[in-house]
Amino acid sequence: MAEEVLSSEHLYQGRALSLRVDTVRLASGRVTTREIVEHMPSVVMVPIDTDGSLIMVRQMRHAVDSTILELPAGTTEPGESSEECARRELREEVGQEPRGLELLGGFYSAPGYTSEYLYIYLATGLEHNPAVAEDTEYIEPVRYPLGEVPRLIASGEIEDSKTLAGLYLYWLKKGGGRS
User: Fold this and answer.
1) Which of 3, 95, 102 is nearest to 44 (CA)?
2) Separation between Cα atoms, residue 132 and residue 119, nearest integer Å
3) Of 31, 46, 90, 158, which one is least surrounded by beta carbons within 10 A?
4) How far apart are CA 41 and CA 81, in angstroms?
């Protein structure tokens, strides 16, 4: 059941996101506000190299004041498809270009307050072809045998939700590396 939007006010417009506050009428007739973070669609890649290893990145994340282990990911640029973004981000973050990209699925990151949708891609047939990006100073590519992934999750070394979701979709659709 849709909420009736009575008014909408944009409070902030940044490079990566914007913030708006909507005043809405609920089905009960009650009026309340919704704070919405508007965000372009994003991509998450599950890159498997030719020897069957998973390529992840260690990346400094200022918001949590920590370097965390995650799958390569990024936000689409205006007019860029999710597949184009996946190819660009893989080159920028791990220096690899995929010959194969397969959409595994997708999900909303936090639908209670943001519009961000994430597409999960399996990337295979990787070839060395780096691209330089402005914001990759604190990104370190790391390789793990696929058999190490359950341990990384169980030990808490992977704390990033998009990485957990991406790996879960991969395991469901590809049998955890036994494709």
Assistant:
1) 102
2) 23
3) 31
4) 9
d(CA 89, CA 98): 11
Torsion sign (Cα): 5, 22, 35, 11: positive
With contact defined as beta carbons under 8 Å apart, do 92 and 83 qualify?
no
10 Å Cβ neighbour count for 82?
Answer: 19
Give the Cα-Cα-Cα angle 143, 144, 148 (nearest 5 degrees). Answer: 170
Give the CA distances from residue 166 to residues 101, 143, 158, 162, 170, in Å, rounded to whole numbers and listed in that order: 14, 16, 12, 6, 6
Average pLDDT of the chain, as a whole number: 94
Is the sign of the CA dihedral 47, 49, 50, 52 positive or negative? Answer: negative
- The predicted pLDDT at position 2 comes to 87
Specify whether the CB–CB gap between 139 and 57 falls below 8 A. yes
Helices marked H in the chain: 82-94, 149-154, 161-174
Is residue 41 within 8 Å of 76, Cβ to Cβ?
Answer: yes
161 φ, ψ to 5°?
A: -65, -40
